[in-house]
Records
---
Amino acid sequence: MKRRQSPGLYRKILVANRGEIACRVIRTCKRMGILTVAVYSEEDRDSLHVSLANEAYAIQGKTPADSYLNQEKILKAAGCHEVDAIHPGYGFLAENADFAEKCLKSGVGFIGPKPESIRLMGSKATAKQLMEQAGVPIVPGYHGQSQVLKVLKKEADRTGYPLLIKPLAGGGGKGLRRVDHPAELEDALSQARNEAVNAFGDNRVLLERFIEGPRHIEFQVFGDSRGNLVHLHERDCSLQRRHQKILEESPSPFMDQELREKMAETALNAAGTVNYIGAGTVEFIVDKERNYFFMELNTRLQVEHPVTEMRTGIDLVEWQIRIAAGEPLPLSQDKIKPGGHAVEVRICAENPEQGFLPSTGILKCWEFPGNGSGNEPSRIRMDTGFRKGDEVSIHYDSMLAKLVVHEKDRQAALKLMESVLRRSVLMGPESNLGFLQKLVSHPEVRKGKADTLFVDARLQELLCTNHSAPDWIHWACALRFLEQERERTAQRAETAGDSHSPWNTFDNWRIGDPEPHRIILVDHHGGEREIRIVDTEAGFEILRESDSVLIHFSSEESDCEITFENENGDSCSHALKIFLHEKELHAVHEKGREMMFLRDALDHAGTVEDWDHRLTSPMPGRIARVCVQPGEQVLRGQTLLIMEAMKMEHPIVAPAEGRVEKIYFQQGDS
């Protein structure tokens, strides 16, 4: 592999990642005039990041371990394409000190911190010990090396309950467990270790006191090889679910200027402790009395970095590349002047109403406002690695995109985000769009009062399970379908050149009274509703059991408007968007969104088997562990298998009390 000979920027960069972050890096490289090489697994052969790059290399393998985590394959690709440097994105190999060292020894640049910094910060225990020595406040707890149960129990008693168990390696909430009582500690340790070893290959943990009323505040920092350090201000990541970030914003609505300046100085002190070079994020937890404690220094770009980019106008990936190539920081601290307010939400293929279970499938409809490029200045930004028609597979995490907005102040930004979500749709896999729509409009979120426990405490308010859609939404969906069918029929008639054929007309004409169109809609709870529609000269008439309602309905593509008189005789008008794909409809309106299916009136229900005592998998996946033995007596609800899919573990439990006769699966099976 050839070492870059001449000074200056890199000529060609390999992006050792996939999805939206690979697309994000590739776009910046193109703007800078740098050639890019994409790597791809078998599942990603037709992915967006592959088509965006100048060159591509097949690393084979379906799972991350066989592809994007395979260091030898990545380095071989770099050699074959004679690249000058590797950008690891975030996740996968981004915080792997051994990989960074291998890159440098091979003569190829690593666009990230020095390997020694990655190694020091990769161990939470070592990081906290270093920070404590440097005078950076840390959360009280146990950060020692011993993992003996007796020692951990003793240290847990000393730390006090409630406490958190955290894996020494990794992040993103994987393996994190809250323990409220000593009796829960042993089971929680076992669960945390199992999840940590699957996610990071390391089952060691540390213990920390649980902070009441916690806020999660992080500072973006940058360092160069000349010893210069700057921060690009804070991001508030307090809106989380089970320690997984959902919404990030900047500036924080919780902080005042005095606290902001104090924490920024501490963040720079933390980065300076390890002579930090490149992009990093110093993460703090802040209690309700505004005392703050160091959590970790992430030695990579964060998922939420666009929030900082939108406020500062700075391309953080460009800074990474320039600093890795030996250039100084482009700006000094006094020249970094953020403005306005930015908010980001993470759009995921998951079903919030089913415990946020990850979802897979083909993106049959994928529409969002905004430029979608992730680089041009705009109030709306969409970072994604997916296009309409792409498949969401089981092998990678469920995040599909990051939606970011920027406005003059916080209320304007949240209002814009809500508006954008109302104009967005994803059909195919389940998504969290409705959940996000409710989250950004919640009064406590609007007031900036939500801490890291808010979502879990108010989850039922944020789900779409506690309401039934009003009648007018069903009427609008039925009328939109009716209009679409008429358009299709007219097109068939025009193509066939025979508009008089009964097969090329869509009306319910008959002698005598008009026969209503009967459209059956099924909601996501399985409830059915038949809508009976009659055409009149004045509009559409919806027939009900004892009366009828006159409707005025108009639509232009997905934008629809419905007007009618309510029970008080007042005229009501509602605007909404309705998206159709085959027999699936999505209606997005001011109160949320509804998913419905069209049922053919001629469909006949077959015999439904009783599944109450059958073992079923919630989604396709890989068997991570088998938890029982043949002949073992089990109780209802006892875990039999642990299935792994989309970087999450899903327990398969016994549907009833009984005895295990035979096990048909083993670890590693799909």
Note: Confidence is low (pLDDT under 50) at residues 1-6, 372-377, 604-611.
---
Amino acid sequence: MTLDTAIVNGTIIDGTGNPGYPGSVGIRNGRIVSIGRHAGHAARCIDARGLILAPGFIDIHTHSGAALLADPRGVSAVSQGVTTHVTGNCGNSVFPPAKMLRPLFKRFGLDPTWEDLRGYISRIRKQGVGLNIAPLVGQGTVRSYVMGDTARMPSPHELAAMKRLIAQAMEQGAFGMSTGLIYPPGCFSETDELVELAKVVHDFGGLYASHIRNEGAGLVDAVLEAVSIGERAGVPVQISHLKATHPRWRGRVGEVLNLLDTARERGVDVTWDQYPYTATSTGLNIFVPGWAHEGGADALERRLHDPASRQRILTEMRQSGKDWSEVLIISCPAHPDWKNLTPVQIGARLGLPPEEAVLEVLSAEGAEAKMANFVICEEDIETILRHPVTMVGSDGVATAAEGPLGHLPFHPRCYGTFPRLLDRYVREKGVLTLEEAVRRMTSAPARRQGLSDRGRLQEGMRADITVFDPARVADRATFDRPDAYSEGIAHVLVNGELVIEREGCTGKLPGRVLLKPPRRSPDGAPAPTLQRAM
């Protein structure tokens, strides 16, 4: 047999959780055609002696839809061994072209020319992409497109319009719908509205992925809401980046897992993912009460400068009891001297309480102000990780230290999530075995998304493959140096093409947009979860 590529002399961990075994993998026309043995001549032979051969890692929770247009290489992702990004999470997809997306497009220097998922796919295909993309449609984006950023229930006409847009995205191949219920405009949506939209997703056999409404003091109620939406709409639920951020729940996340296990036992199809860091990260404006976001970013800015509105915002922020020493400003272009300071430290410089310092940063930086919030305890990370249902998602962006996005600051998870799991939680702490960790990053998310020919090393599967050194693999990104690439990921193949070779990026763009079949059964039964690629 003549092969395009043979990877020989390695240890195969096939993604199923089974023990590793010595062997080789043969690739032809982008697929695995032999495994466990080396048969025939190969145009390229990679010696993997001392290395692990695993399926390419699948990042089930990312925000790379716009970034991969600005820099299609996705270096921060593929250098971790990641070959597929599930995009459009937290209610925020890059289609349809809602007003709320303008700051995102501006940040990445994009001129959007598409109206829907099909148009976005066309744009990706024209330029190429370094890894695979599996898109979700964002409920927040759809709501903003139909209703703007209004804090009210939709009219029947508006709800019907949102349903049509969700159906259109599903017909064009989206894998499901996401929500971001702490962000506007998703936070303005009531449960019944979400159920109605999720029923459309059900008709196409899709998934409901949710950044739940509260990860702090109201964590339990928010988890139960997600479960209820899945139960009422008949859709599988993926709880995004499960964590406990409030002192009331830190160290008690096992109680939340027990609630989820109870739901699973009664037949609710609910799973979840996490990232292995103690800090969250999002826009600093998340600390501003929800009512102040109505009308969008411009309206929020006006309220920050209106004395009565500003005082009301400050009063509610003080009532939250937030420990502002937990917050680190990671992006403030107009005031670089505030970067890597807390609101307490900035307030000391300005002679202001920390809440007022937050509003000063927002007044100066607007949507560009980003922060990290150190509110997750290590014990909870390990408790969640030990649960066999847990998958791995970076909540990050595919970027690069050099190139058009190199000037933008990000959380270290964009560069280090998957190697960090293998280093800290497999090799150092032994929370998971190597085989189980690989399963959480490969076959488990592939099955969840319905990627039928990825996520396992088996004959006939797509040749998305990661080759890594189990003794060296480690993350190097920190908050001081968030764009440091990981180590120990030797080779990465996407659809049979090398995108990482000897730990260096090749610049090739063999990725695809992976899509669900555009079918809906007449009786509303779930469509088969096979994939197609464009």
Note: DSSP finds 17 helices and 23 strands in the chain.
---
Amino acid sequence: MIESVTQGMSRRSLFTLIGSVAGGAIMYEAMSSLAYAQESTFDGPAKLTGDAKGASVLILGAGLAGMSAAYELRKAGYKVQILEFQDRAGGRNWSIRGGDVYTELGGATQKCEFDTGLYINPGPWRIPYHHHGILHYCKELKVALQPFVQTGYNTYLHSTKAFGGKPQRFRHIQADFNGYAAELLAKSTRQSALDQMVTKEDREVLMEAMRSWGALDKNYEYKKGLETSDRRGYDKDPGGGLSARPIPSEPLAMSDVLQSQLWRYISTGHGYEFQNTLFQPVGGMGMIGTAFGKALDGVIQYGCKVTDIKQDASGVTVTYVPTKGGGPARTARADWCLNTIPASVLSQIPMNVGDKMQAAINALSYGASIKVGLQFKRRFWEEDEHIYGGISYTDQPNAQISYPSTDYFSSGKGVLLGAYTFGPNAYRYAALSPEERIARTVEYGSKIHPQYKAEFENGVAVAWHRVPWVLGCSGSWTDDLRAQHYDNLCQIDGRILLAGEHASYIPAWQEGAITSAQDAITRLHKRVLAA
């Protein structure tokens, strides 16, 4: 059944659908079976006790996998060097700020024009509370964190096909959907339709639970009143004095709520990955990469494009060329090599590993996604619509609008995430120039926020499968691919081993990179001690 459904929708959409209909616990079970929602196994950094015997390790890539590995290996006495393609540390851990320049495949170059202090995270942008590894290193490196608001009940759910294209408040859809579902279940219970499933005593408790959950009246009906308005909001809120009396709001019709399909989004915050509390670094996700880079000062060599990786019985030699200024090819050599280059790029670099590892590298595809950050003259979402963090969802190609969980009530300009989309929509977006992507995003957003066009100033758009150093947002495993290739990807091949989010059961998350690296260096250390 699930296989037939997934032919027409992404896994992310499937998980949302399962969660909406069956609840967060069932959605998590489905996500776990497909290795998309796992609590991190991290219980502290790798314990590399014993004499490293002066061994050297060459690490390719200064993303979180490479840098967390280097951090621990150096403490254990290894000689460590990192070669990094870019001129900064962090990899996909990246924040774009005013003045930053980025060139994608095809040559399109963008210069971010955000005002000082404003930024967008084109890659990872939130940290779940149970991602213990990345949280450990934030504490270790003194990276300040603050809450990230995933679910905002005053945000919008929008369908171009429902309610005349008018966006609905998240709380309206959630309250009305839950209320009608509770009413239907209460009617079924009262009519003894559940006699064979629950006892009389259980039915009484269930009836009371339905009344409480769905804000039903004394007749177990979901209708306009103070109870329902206490969930979905009032037409006129309670106040003080002679004008204190509230005016209840009118629920949307049950059929309209069901047919709108907007209920698909209300379970997002129930998903294990998105349950409270989520965190974000103060000043942007890139603060983590920056902190790692400072801690590894002198270890990382920037601007190195790897062109060849060759191992022999005694070590590994890597050939690279400078990314800026030209010059002849150079080499670096070490006893061992930890390779964290994404498989999408690594598949194009000669490397003499066994057939099984090479087949695994070649088989792993990378997903397409795009993010568009937009700067506005003022924080109209707060001033006009009282939205403080959270995400609005739409069936338009931009898919999501995320409001900053920072600088609340500030009077200056603001940046929001105007688009975050995957799959076919990401490819369609990427076919446009960056300027056209931004213009489309403003157009889509104006259907939800009419203020967009008057308040918009500038933007930046990152299509991940056009980013030269990764060619996709993350490794895209299927069950069959994992069964055939995952173990071969992670095994030590001679003197080379791989790490990164793609070598984990937590793909697309920074925690996957951290745990993959810790596992890799633990196995490497055992090999060194046994040598």
Note: The chain has 18 helices and 24 strands.
---
Amino acid sequence: MRPDAILAYPDHSAVRIQADDIARSAIRLTVFCAFAAMFVMAWTRNINWDEFYFLSHVHANLDGRLDRPLQTVFVHGFRWLSWVSDHEIDQIAVARIAMMVFFAGTCCALHRIAATLADEASADIATLAFVTSGFAIAHGASFRADPMAAGLLMGAVALMMTTRMGLVQVLAVAILSALALLVTVKSALYLPVFIGALLWRWDDRGVVLRCLIAGLLALVIAGLLFMWHASTINVAQGADAGGNLSEAARVTLGGSGFLPRWPEVSLWLMFSAGGLMLAGAGLYATENKRLRVVFILFALPLLSVVIYRNAFPYFFPFAVPPLMVAVALGAQYLRGTLLFKLALVLMLASGVIQSQRALSEGNATQRATIAEVHRIFPEPVSYIDQNGMISSFERHGFFMSTWGIATYRAGGKPVFADLILRNQPPLLLANRAELHAAMRPETSNHQFLGLLPEDAAILRKSYVHHAGVIWLAGQDIMLTDGVATTQMPFAGHFRIESASPVSVAGRKVSSGDVLALDRDTIEIKGPDGAKVRLIWNIEAGLSQTQLPETGLYAGFWRL
């Protein structure tokens, strides 16, 4: 055959390689776009209430107020957030960027494990499947324990499955595992994944032995670090690790029936359909029985949603990464088929839809609310709210999660009268439905268990509205027959607001005057039917910002 005749035929293998390279570049570009969207969301997206709560632990540690050791070791790694800004939202935005590093670590570990079991192109698709799976873009880098734990645990698993586990790797696995366990006890849900990694390396007993040594060393490191951390704080009564751990296990595991978070699970299934198709194909296609068992073990953290009460959206980016390893084998098995193309389309559609919805949830109202609090209180004061939204201030009261509200209701004991008398908080943020219902019972048509009637009444009697969710210590008083008696919630300087001059405790005052009042009963006299407000005096003056009283935590992903 003439040489020029050879050139007349196209090189199909070269074309195929070029097409594969283009496809891989497109997939990696998509993952990069997802990270870019997450970077923007870090600054603009609505902040969930427990991200503020997470930040409040950092400030409590800085101020010497941290009083519980369990799952708070992370505070030592985020002390620097107080240097970033005086505004809590800026601090959380920067913390979310830090969480993106852990999320990237999770993706790298997933890719490394997948590339070991399949090829590089399939590992790219496994990473894409995870990034575009339900809630990953919206919550994969939220300021919580979950992104940190996922990155640490997946890093440890990747080392166990892909290295010879020399001394450096043994130490790395031990440290990563110990830190993950200290960050959150839910890291124990990854135990089946570690067993799966051991099963995969079972033929090399030396590696298995070194992995077990790493596990024992992790427990020792975790124990020593926890004892050191506990020694640096004053543990409050009832906040010891043993009591908190047993209560958490009782409530979160098996205490809420079958599929307690079905709405979240159903949303995750819908947005993860493409990845699940390929993961199922991977489980079906492998002829290696041991690998099939490994994949089943890797799926168990996610399958805990059957009984796990706290399977909120942020839980899925923590529990899903091991399962997505199977996607690589499914992609390798189905590549080029119509089902494979459909799975890719579903992944891309999921990523686009989730990004659009999450980007639409702005934090402007939250930012304005916090700015107003700092305007009227330039120096920290004690306050009451749901979750520690003003993280640099000292918050009083129980954590008003659904779990916290249920525990409070089950106790049946009013708590706010004593709390207000003992701590004298001049600020109340009605940033949860139960608090809003207590302060605005006439406008609240709610279908939930609110505060106990005694607590709702004492809050209404002790605080008056300032702006948005912001309420200040004081009382609104109506003069009947020109007179009324009242008692302030605690001693302090209160400003008079009244359309006409009145007499307070025998002293004639006009609107704008400031009185130093104690808790003694006082008599107010003035025109019949006059409305008099006594409100905690602030130097900043009235609010110039219109803030909504509801919808502070809002959107498609609301928990």
Note: The first strand starts at residue 382 and ends at 384.
